[in-house]
Amino acid sequence: MFTAHLTSIDPQITNLVPVLKSYWLTIHVSILTASYGFFGLGAILGFMSLIMFIFRKNRPHLDETIKHITAINEIALIIGLTAITIGNFLGGVWANESWGRYWGWDPKETWAYVAIVFYIFVVHLRFVKALNTPFVFSVASLLAFSTILMTYFGVNFYLSGMHSYATGDPVPIPMWVYYVTAGVFITIALAYKNRNLKDAITQVK
Questions:
Q1: In the prediction, which pLDDT does 169 show?
Q2: Which of 64, 71, 78, 130 has the fewest CB atoms within 10 Å distance of its CB?
Q3: What's the number of CA atoms in the CB half-sphere (13 Å) around residue 93?
Q4: Could you give the CA distance from residue 115 to residue 194 in angstroms, rounded to a whole number?
Q5: Which of the four pLDDT bands, split at 50, 70 and 90, describes residue 199?
Q6: Residues of the domain holding 49
């Protein structure tokens, strides 16, 4: 919410369009926003574990902490995935009442679907033996959050559709976004060399 209020959108309250007067607005948006919170938590936990990967050399006690964080991260993503899926279905009900159709491949609908698919892959990585590692899960949970950011910010500011009520000139991308993106990839690169927990466990034994 803090980031949303950093934009230059006119805060003046005007008359609501009929579609925004539906009680489905509160239900649909509340559930989806709650799911975004769990996905944000997953991204933060993923970043925290990557930081620990960087400093885990000669610190074997961090391995257990990484595993615990990964377990909590997985629970958060499962809850978030459940909420966003339910919220998306309820959004279809709202769309049917408002526009007479359940699904229309509107940019917001499409990106919500993309986010669901991405997180389905993330929570099922454990079924792929080569990808069933805390490092891979941490990276995936962190990068997957970009789909949520695109759904929440990108669609509203840069794509036109029925969900984009703040139409107008696209908002310039702040420079700090590029710095944060670069920082994320640098963190992943630094954590990569210490990605294998098994080696550390073997050395301790």
A1: 59
A2: 130
A3: 14
A4: 29
A5: very low
A6: 23-204
Q: Is residue 14 part of a domain?
A: no
The residue assigned the tokens 């209020």 is 5
- Judge contact between 195 and 133, C-beta under 8 A: yes
Assess if residue 82 is contained within a domain. yes
Which pTM value belongs to this model? Answer: 0.81
Convert the pLDDT of each residue in 63-91 to its tens digit. 899 999 999 999 999 999 999 999 999 88
Q: Could you tell me if residue 141 is inside a domain?
A: yes
What does the pLDDT read at residue 27? 85
